[in-house]
Amino acid sequence: MVETIDSTDGASQNSPGMPPYRRGIHPGMYRDRLWTMRQYAGFSSPSNTNKRFKRLLDSGQTGISIAFDLPTQLGLDSDDDLSSGEVGKVGVSIDSIHDMRELFYGIDMGSISTSMTINAPATTLLALYVAVADEQGIPIDQLSGTVQNDILKEYISRGLYIFPPEPSIRLTTDLMSWCNRHAPRWNTISISGYHMREAGCTASQEIALTLANAIFYSRKAIESGMKIDDFAPRMSFFFACHNDFIEEICKFRAARQLWYELVEAEFSPTNPKSSQLRFHTQTSGVTLTAQQPKNNAIRVAYQALSAVLGGTQSLHTNSFDEALGLPTEDSARLALRTQQIIAEELGITGHVDPLGGSSTVEKNTDELIHQARSIIDDIGEMGGAMECVKAGFQQRMIHESAWDHLRSVEDKSELVVGVNSHVDETEPVFEGLILDSSEANSKISRLIEMKANRNIESVNESLSELRQCCRKGSNVMPPIISAVKAEATVGEVNSVLREEFGTWVAPSGV
User: Fold this and answer.
1) How many CB atoms lie within 10 A of CB 435?
2) 471-496 residue pLDDT tens
3) What is the arrangement of strands in the sheet containing 63-66, beginning at the earlier edge strand?
4) Is residue 488 part of a domain?
5) Residue 187 within a domain
6) The domain that contains 234 carries what CATH number?
7) Domain count, the chain
8) Cα dist. 219→228, 234, 256, 263, 280 in Å?
9) Which helix (H) or strand (E) holds 175?
10) Global pTM?
11) Angle CA(504)–CA(507)–CA(510) in degrees, nearest 5?
12) Which residues of the chain have pLDDT under 50?
């Protein structure tokens, strides 16, 4: 590969690595370091997911990204009646420290970066991770990774929340504060536009809603006693990448510049990293089609290329069969190979923001900044992100955009190959990954046995300490870590939080 030095490199505002970071947050970008190839994985049991992690790492993946099942994401144990039929189905089931040990068996947690897509019970899952790392003898301050910890987008678009807004934000800021003191290499929140985009919002709305949420979290963290430079350098973002190739490249550039401008204007940080937008990208799940599923491999490749040309720091590429079910081992490997081909064969990693300066790219970037800023201003005038959530503002915006998109597909003003264009009358049958239902029953049996054989006095004492912490207003992370080390389960920890904080139903926006 020929290493190219861009003519615009230098100490100017239009240069990569320089404010407002429109062209990237690092001067050399992928010439210096490739993006992290972080394939999202998790299904069935911790043991099966551990095997998938190891195969992906052996295939060249450079970071782990954990998908949890629905009960875990809702703070429920596998033996809860509400978990019936969902254990291990859309992610790995984690009930206790035993499961987390099994998930990372034979994996050095001190040398791998781990991302956990978990929100409402984020404190509990991070506590389990910390507890197992402690058993491996790894200092907490050496752990690196990300916990999503973004509850606002759960209220807005995804629905996997538990507690009312105020205690939820307390849990978010408690985690951020604890990591600031004890786990400085850990990204304490990943503000996600991905799920809002997948639910139906447009590119400019994805930027605006994500950054408005990030501003809200920043204000709350500062209210809790932190300074902007205490937490902002460890904030990360998570965006979708859809099919409009040029628009998506411009979206990432616009988000970087707008975040810089917003942070500098309101918070005046002294650390330049506080106003740098670092982000993970996942190719779009909703653009994948069950019709002609092999076409999805092409969609994913172009979406991944768009993310790379937009300057992502981390990337997951979807498997072509995900519209049919969980990805098979072969399709997951092909998705990873897609990233590796972009990195090693296309020659683009020798250039920094190679599309920068294009009149089309610059014009569209400016337009997205203008549109997103207008929405952020509207949210600010209505009292900020949380007040808008309570009024259903963001939810309504997403519903309307999703409806517009659906109509455009139905009237064929937007073409989708295999769906309303180039449709095949007969299609081959593809089989996705078939899960063994006995795995869930075995998991539940082991959990019941563990609960029967542990020191219940230690468990109850640790949960009592957590309850008192909730009432006193002190940081919940230390008692949760103690509780999971005593073999308290995810469900038991979050049952205490439910009893102390209550539950809530977000308005639909309809």
Assistant:
1) 16
2) 999 999 999 999 999 999 999 999 99
3) 186-187, 144-147, 113-116, 63-66, 36-41, 314-316, 279-283, 235-241, 189-192
4) no
5) yes
6) 3.20.20.240
7) 1
8) 9, 15, 19, 11, 23
9) helix 165-182
10) 0.94
11) 160
12) 1-11
